[in-house]
Amino acid sequence: MSSALLMVENLGIQFGGLKAVQNVELYMNQGELIGLIGPNGAGKTTTFNMLTGVYTPTEGKIMFDGKSIGGLDPYKVTRQGISRTFQNIRLFKELTVLDNVKVANHGLAKHNLISSIFRLPSHFNGEEKMEKESLAFLKIFGLDVYRDELAKNLPYGMQRRLEIARALAAAPKLLLLDEPAAGMNAKETHDLMELIAFIRKEFDLTILLIEHDMNLVMGICERIYVLDHGQLIASGTPAEIRSNPKVIEAYLGEEVTE
Ligand SMILES: Nc1ncnc2c1ncn2[C@@H]1O[C@H](COP(=O)(O)OP(=O)(O)OP(=O)(O)O)[C@@H](O)[C@H]1O
């Protein structure tokens, strides 16, 4: 699979005596939407932290877009084209919705979608241009009506959307979503599912999704990797994962197989 966008080989990290992640092998082709699931403490967020430079792996290799990125500083990983959201929302709570996107606007101009829906006359200066681009971007996420609201005052589901919008403002090739549906009700989760499918298509994204909501994971992912106690115990299509006895025992439980 030399053409994979992301290729992870024998990835591992140890904290003191704890092997939090070991021997993880995974790949993602351009445009794929892949799930990463497993019980609490299985090593999912730790894997994200290694992919984004927060932790330096103690073993293994991470190749992204043909380059080795294991152990790079997080800002360099972002520059290579990987953005993420966090399990616990991390917005600039005291800034407006618009400013949250503006501070992350390193790459909006790179988005074809923005330039095609919003052709800016060349006389706009940098600041005006950034503001217009950021607004056009908010509109895609249904967040333009909240532009002047402080982020902390947004309804929860909208905060989650804003986090995704902000991650996308850096124009990533690979987007890592850490439990984006956590704390959402059924309607918000459904809307989020549609949003993920939409941005994937419109922004030509590759997405790795950590999520406990199995309807969401099974509903939109092409393939799924399953971690348990820091090790991969299965990978495959949603149908294969749903009927895998190891996965049922470690995570899904009997009822999901019905
Ligand atoms: N900085 C750290 N120092 C020590 N142990 C850590 C550190 N980061 C993670 N761990 C440990 O690594 C293991 C995996 O944790 P991780 O947060 O990756 O699990 P997870 O699969 O994301 O769980 P959850 O679904 O609850 O978010 C846990 O035992 C955790 O305590």
UniProtKB/TrEMBL annotation:
Residues 6-254 form the ABC transporter domain. CDD domains: ABC_Mj1267_LivG_branched. GO terms for molecular function: ATP binding. The lineage of its organism: Bacteria, Bacillati, Bacillota, Bacilli, Bacillales. PROSITE patterns: ABC_TRANSPORTER_2. This is ABC transporter ATP-binding protein. Signal peptide: none annotated. It comes from the Bacteria. Keywords: ATP-binding, Nucleotide-binding, Transport.
